[in-house]
Specification:
Helix content is about 20%, strand content about 50%. The protein is an alpha+beta fold. The protein has a single domain (about 5-70), classed as SH3 type barrels, CATH 2.30.30.
Amino acid sequence: MAELNTTQYDALERAIADRRRMSVYRRGTEYVVVPTRLRQIQGREALEAVHPTTGEHLTLYIDEVESIEVVD
């Protein structure tokens, strides 16, 4: 998935604002994270997130993401 559609961006922005968990699939691996920020890094869109249990910080590039879903 090189780009997110408007519905996915809305869900991502709402998850960042509300600090809600998201399920992100990248290279066949599922990451359940709390997104904290969406930004550009060297021309690539990146999602900065925190693992909800360990507190580990992750940077996931949107152009590497296969799918995203907000976890209720």
